[in-house]
Design goal:
Protein name: DUF8175 domain-containing protein
Strand content: 15-25%
Order of helices and strands: HHEEEEHHEEEEE
Number of helices: 4
Keywords: Membrane, Transmembrane, Transmembrane helix
Organism: Marinactinospora thermotolerans DSM 45154
Number of domains: 1
Length: about 270
């Protein structure tokens, strides 16, 4: 796909987040059925959204394992301080001293995971691909956590993996909330779209925040920013949520891919 073909805001009109159906669809793309199809979609469509900015206010209390929001700026590494559980990669991938993501690794290959293309790297992960397509184990590196976020997002397009995806969440009350909702609701309807770009917002020791640009196809369509928080836990990157199971930073409308690292032109 060429840069000219990559959609951003779908036009110069009002925010796509003004549509309640788009809010639900966009969140479903970014999280497993519990957070996207049930919990978050219901909460977000009930919140006050801004048609001008597409902003959605966070809810549900502080993120698990982090200090209060008033103690660190939004752009800071989640958790505020560098700390690690000391674990090594469960599949033997090497860690890195880097703290920036400047591009996809040279050995990156791309393939469909569910309905979306996602990257793989022998050096950074996924180190394990199960027979059913479930992917896990990433290097403790900027590239590793970026690939973890992109592969997770791709796997949400495969309803058969909705229970497996629970293993990618950090331990805590939020994970238990998600587990209960997943078991109650079952898989959700798939949303057609692709990953338009990615950027690493923060990285330090055992914490990271990755922002995925999701391009939603169909009606109403549009592009959203979907930030994901991670912490290193038991030898792999795990998704951090608030205590109610929602993501730390909510989905928001995106009008430009400036600053995002785009997949190769042939991907998408």
């Amino acid at each position: 796909m060429s840069d000219e073909e990559r959609p951003t805001d779908g036009g110069g009109g009002k925010s796509p987040l003004a549509s309640r159906s788009f809010i639900a669809a966009a969140v479903t793309v970014g999280v497993i059925v519990a957070a996207g199809g049930v919990v978050t979609a219901i909460n977000l469509t009930g919140n006050d959204t801004s048609a001008e900015s597409g902003a959605i206010e966070p809810s549900g209390g502080p993120a698990e394992g982090t200090v209060g929001e008033e103690e660190y700026p939004e752009e800071a590494t989640p958790g505020g301080v560098e700390r690690s559980d000391g674990s090594e990669s469960v599949c033997g991938l090497r860690s890195s001293e880097k703290d920036e993501f400047t591009g996809f690794p040279e050995d990156t290959s791309w393939g469909f995971v569910g309905m979306r293309e996602a990257p793989s790297s022998r050096a950074h992960g996924p180190g394990v691909v199960e027979d059913n397509g479930f992917r896990h184990c990433y290097a403790k590196s900027p590239e590793g956590v970026v690939l973890a976020a992109m592969n997770y997002t791709a796997m949400t397009s495969d309803p058969s993996l909705y229970l497996d995806l629970l293993d990618l969440y950090a331990e805590g009350p939020g994970k238990e909330v998600l587990k209960a909702k997943v078991e109650e609701a079952g898989p959700s309807e798939r949303v057609v779209g692709h990953i338009g770009g990615v950027r690493l917002l923060s990285y330090a020791a055992d914490r990271a925040r990755v922002d995925i640009a999701l391009v939603i196809q169909g009606s109403p369509g549009g592009t959203v920013s979907y930030p994901m928080d991670f912490r290193w836990e038991d030898g792999d990157w795990k998704i951090v949520t608030r205590e109610n199971g929602e993501m730390v930073i909510p989905v928001a409308a995106l009008y430009s891919l400036d600053g995002y690292i785009l997949p190769p032109a042939e991907v998408g």
